[in-house]
Amino acid sequence: MKNKIGFNLVFALLAFPIGLALSREFDFHNFTFRKPALGFLYLFTFIITIILIFKKRQSSQ
Fold this sequence. Notes:
transmembrane, 2 helices, 2 strands, membrane, about 5% strand, transmembrane helix, two-stranded antiparallel sheet, mainly alpha
């Protein structure tokens, strides 16, 4: 069987509020995070959830 790119709804629902929190934490005027440690934590978890949303499904044989 072909490997298909799957869309995981659970991780999409997790990525949405993390992305909103990330945008609130980022200061667009100075291009910095207001609290750098929290901002990088939000950024790291947001990137991981985006990767897990579009992860390829394992093919069963």
